[in-house]
Every structure is written in structure tokens, then in C-alpha cells.
Write the C-alpha cells for this entry.
Amino acid sequence: MGTTNASRPRQAAAWASLACLALLLTACSGPTPHGASATATNSPGTASTAAAPATSATSTGAPATSPGTPAPTAAGTAAPTEADTFLATGQDINGTLLHQPACGGFGCALSGDSTTFLANMTWTTWSGTEAVGTGTYKINDCNPNCAAGHVYSVATMVTLSQPVKVCSASGTHWVWSHASFSFPDGLPTALQGQNAPQNPWTFSPLITAAQQSCAS
């Protein structure tokens, strides 16, 4: 009896050791606990979403231009050049177009009602952006009316600018739409104050006609 009772504790200890070992083996082969990280393997030929490069874009949402690609230009916006920019006589885009005119004789009509003319002009600049010349500005004071008015000849330096595009059957060209004047000897009394000539002068009817010529 003493021998039997002594072997029971050793048997119980042995069974307990076996039970612990079984529990350890079960824990090691069980599922990965929630929240543990695992390395994902992509199927052959399948790109990983995480590895895809982000799309590059400009601040306007357009794809970034590749290096070496010229910036796009709007159609029909070729800049005027010296050779295809003119002064439209009387602001008439369908009339005579003048290129660096001397405006001899009575001169070149600047207004549509023939009350202002440029005469005896010498041009120091004539480019696609502006024309600068010196000469005489002939101005009718229209007093008491333009038919009976007095024409004053005033020394002037004129700058023509803001060329607008004109479309015609003969091709595309540009005409000056803005003029500004300086008068080195001043203006006669009759042309001062409220009677002073318009300065600067924007040729609004010419601009409208030019826009309409290219609208179709």
C-alpha cells in the first residue's frame, strides 16, 4: 500500500506535464491573434495597390507636363509682327491700310469724320507692339461746325499701340486701335480745356469691326 500511494503523485505530475505540452502545441498552431500584422503576398501578375505610384498633377488638375514638352498655345493667337501691322485710314478696316506712312500732302485721316489727320510723319519705331512717330497733328475745331471749322496744325509725337486682328479675304493682318499724343509746343488756346483733342484715344468702332471680321 505504501508503494502504491507514493507512485500516485508521480503519475499525476507526469499527466500534468503532458497536458501542458499539449496546450502549448495548440497555442503555437492556432490562428493569428486579431491585430497582428502579416505580410501579404500578391498573386502573379497582380500589382499591389499600396505600391502604385501617386498620379502627378498641376494645381489646376491637369497632368504635369513632361520635361522638354513645349507649353501649349491657344489656336489663332499668333502675335502681330512689324510687317503685318498697319494704320487703318479713317479707322476703316476695309479701307486703305498704311504701313509706316509719311502722310504727305494734307495727311492721313485718323478719324472717320475727317476732322483729324497725321501729316509729315517720321517713324522712329514700328514694331508688332507699337509705332512711335513725330510730325504734325491737324485738328479741326468744328467751330461753329466741322464744315466751317478752323484746322490747326500742331507739332506732335504720337504712339500707336494695341493692334487688333482683322480677318479678310486677302488674309489676316493687324491694325492699331489706340493712340496717345504729346505736344512739345503745347496746344493753341482754341484746343485747350473742354475743346482739347481726345488723348489717349481708343478706336472703339474699329475694335468692334475687327472682332466681327474674325467671328465667323
About this structure: Residues 82-213 form one domain. Residues 1-76 have pLDDT under 50 and may be disordered.
